[in-house]
Specification:
binds calcium ion; single chain; binds ligand C2E; globular; about 50% helix; alpha/beta; about 350 residues; eight-stranded mixed beta barrel; about 20% strand
């Protein structure tokens, strides 16, 4: 609108109307509402520009827990650094500020390297290193996540080939949005074809949330990829409310137990029971199990007792840059399992 004061009053009214409790068959229900506002021509000239600006503002509202945010304020506020991430992120892609770190996962039976997980890093010219938790969510709300996933896939498969990693598998995280994208499976297979990386050595880590967002589409993407030999792991298993549903609906290869459960494994009897039963359930279904967040020898030992298959965590190795991975892999080959050094 042209009159910001009048329109902000209208937006407040809209917000109030939606967020007021509604009686549904006599039962009071309340929904949380976050509104992002962008206005033409100041915030954009095309529908796409305006929607993107409104997205940024809504994202701020969600993060700050405020009901309404204006894109205008996002730009003026001292928070600018984080909120302009979105435009910086397209630059980052073009200017090679995004890198990949690699974190090994060990087979618990013999200590051999089973998989290496690719984890994205952003070295921002002004803000320094920005963790993926700060920008993957933002990227997912726009079409930027596509090129990011593709970048990770390309760079990591080429890296694994260069590192002559033997038959070690590569794990790549995939966002909900990509899984819903009808052309995603073909894009992945295209990257594999180009780099010559065998599909059977690629494992895509997807979260339950990503799958249940649109079960039909996820099923299509996942079965298409699995047909070609690509493996699928359920990431952050156990923290969602839909774990059983996911396993009912989909064929996957592996589950990764979330590190929240693993961390307290040795101190909380209840967590130990939950991890034990998650492992048992996965095995019954013919899936293998990775434990995340293995930070010390006690956790490693407890997981061994519980029959966990693969372990990943700071106690084994932190995510590392590519040159370090090469050295680490070649040194690790010379280590025997009884010498397994689990550091703090
Ligand atoms: P995730 O998939 O659960 O990745 C594991 C995270 O746990 C990584 O954080 C890793 O550094 C951290 N971690 C590993 N071992 C330990 C441990 O022993 N203790 C503790 N406290 N933490 C440990 P990071 O790299 O910050 O990644 C955070 C999340 O960002 C990832 O969680 C994943 O969901 C997302 N992410 C990272 N890279 C990508 C990517 O390329 N694409 C997409 N879509 N998401 C990504
Ligand atoms: Ca992961
Ligand atoms: Ca995880």
């Amino acid at each position: 609108g042209t009159d910001p004061v009048r329109s902000s009053g209208e937006i407040v009214a809209i917000h109030n109307a939606i967020s007021a409790p509604h009686a549904i068959e006599g039962f009071p229900l309340t929904v949380g509402v976050s509104i992002g506002v962008a206005t033409a021509p100041g915030d954009g000239h095309t529908a796409a520009e305006l929607l993107r600006a409104a997205d940024v503002a809504m994202y701020k509202a969600k993060r700050c827990g405020t009901p309404i945010e204006f894109y205008d304020n996002c730009i003026k506020s001292p928070q600018r650094g984080r909120l302009s991430l979105l435009s910086d992120l397209s630059e980052a892609l073009a200017e090679h500020q995004l890198h990949i770190h690699f974190q090994p996962q060990l087979r618990m039976a013999d200590g051999a390297v089973d998989t290496v997980e690719a984890l994205i890093r952003w070295q921002h010219p002004e803000h320094g290193s920005i963790p993926p938790s700060e920008f993957i969510g933002v990227a997912e709300q726009t079409d930027l996540i596509g090129p990011i996933t593709e970048l990770v896939l390309r760079a990591a498969t080429v890296g694994m080939i260069t590192a002559s990693a033997g038959d070690v598998k590569l794990a790549v995280n995939v966002s909900a949005r990509s899984l819903q994208d009808a052309s995603f499976a073909d894009e992945v297979l295209g990257v594999l074809d180009k780099s010559g990386f065998p599909p059977a050595r690629l494992e895509l880590e997807v979260t339950e949330r990503a799958i249940v967002t649109n079960v039909e589409r996820s099923t299509y993407t996942i079965s298409r990829l699995r047909q070609e030999g690509v493996r699928i792991a359920i990431d952050d298993f156990g923290v969602g409310y839909s774990s059983y549903q996911t396993l009912r609906l989909l064929d996957v290869d592996r589950v990764k137990i979330d590190r929240d459960f693993v961390a307290a494994l040795t101190t909380e009897p209840r967590d130990r029971l939950i991890v034990a039963s998650l492992i048992g359930l996965a095995h019954e279904l013919g899936l293998d199990v990775v434990a995340e967040g293995v930070e010390n020898a006690e956790i490693w030992n407890a997981l061994t007792t519980l029959g966990c298959d693969v372990a990943q965590g700071y106690g084994i190795a932190r995510p590392m840059a590519f040159p370090d991975l090469r050295g680490w892999l070649s040194r690790w080959n010379d280590v025997r399992v009884d010498e397994l050094v689990i550091t703090q």
